[in-house]
Design a protein that fits this description.
The chain is α+β, with helices and mostly antiparallel strands and about 150 residues long. It is built from 4 helices and 6 strands. The protein has one domain. The strands form 2 sheets. It has a 4-stranded antiparallel sheet with strand order 4-1-6-5. Helix 2 packs antiparallel against helix 4.
Amino acid sequence: MGLDMYLNKKTYVGANYDFNNVTGTLALKRNDVPIPINLNKIRYILEEQAYWRKANQIHRWFVNNVQEGVDDCGIYEVYGEQLLELVELCRRVLADHSLADSLLPSQEGFFFGSTEYDEYYFADLESTIEQLEDVEPDTWYEYSSSW
């Protein structure tokens, strides 16, 4: 049990609308068993972009900058440009650890992990940069969390 955080890239396909003229095939299998897919019903494709565990400072950033202060385990759309701002904040704090408490403060919470500014805190920032450095600015993403 603990804070789990997910970020998915959300690509609009719109194959469910004839005027979009989406063509192609999807041949997916799970454990060698075909998964039936009706291309004409696909509206979006979600791809995992990032996953964090107990990175409460990153979660706090999403709550404050994306979720309008509401921490409810909901699903929230995030624009790529916002994620690049988060990457820049992580880089600034990694360059000057004294900025941690003001730019990306930790957050207490039930099963949210440590609130110390220690090697784990900074490792979460490095992981965030690695997972988000290829984010596309003009693309939608979805953030969700659970605990």
